Give the backbone structure.
Amino acid sequence: MSNEVIELMTQLKNKVGQVKNVCVLTGSGVSAESGIPTFRGTEKSLWSKHNVLDMATSEGFRKDPSLVWAWYEWRRRVIRQSTPNAAHHSLAKMATLANKLTLITQNVDDLHERAGSDDVIHVHGEIMKSKCFVCHRDQAHETDLESAIYHRIEPPICAHCGGYVRPKVVWFYESLCEEKWSQATKAAETCDLFLCIGTSGEVMPAASLPELAKQKGAMVVQINPEPNDIDDFADFNFHQNAAEFMPRLLELLFV
Ligand code: OAD
């Protein structure tokens, strides 16, 4: 770690004082070091290789359900074969040391839970869960890891209405779950420290949370190897990989 980062950490420690109420927003960068691709930023990122309108809209699913289902089955396979990294573990540990910690994630994977975090607010849904495309009832589905490599897989059929089953994630042009969003905004508005980790901050409304926290008086700390618009208003920007940096931040603030 460079002298510059160590100096910034010292400044943070001096300024932050006693942390009481932490709100954390994570994005796909927090799972990058577990081998799960991000959406933007590199040529391996999902939206560099796939068309977002084909894979993440109800229109895309209506047009080619087997292509979309196969892609989500492949993503579930990648996630099932990945394990939480030190950033996920540090956040689970932080929740046990802080007076209060609310973990909001844009990630649809389950790595926070597998690292031991409880009550994670998944504002963009959960890829391991499924629901009916037509009647929206929850559906039980277990990915067959053997076949989750095919380019096209016909989705299962809802036992209730005969509609196709889809992943229980939020697609573009769809609304977030109102209850989750209200929990997320309340946590951002009432925290004294807001940690923003591994998100490009490009997708609304989740991207509005760090600025909301700042407006309500929280200190905003960003951890992301690449600069983005959040740098402009965050109190501290650590241009670091989450898995490397989060254990040090945990130690700095809570141990
Ligand atoms: P993005 O893919 O937009 O951004 C990933 C961010 O992670 C970038 O800013 C990278 O610089 C950063 N990053 C990469 N490696 C990292 C590392 N090792 N440690 C820390 N940060 C790292 O991901 P999100 O902001 O999560 O929507 O994307 C937001 C939403 O866009 C997603 O939830 C998804 C997508 O379309 C839905 O699924 C609805």
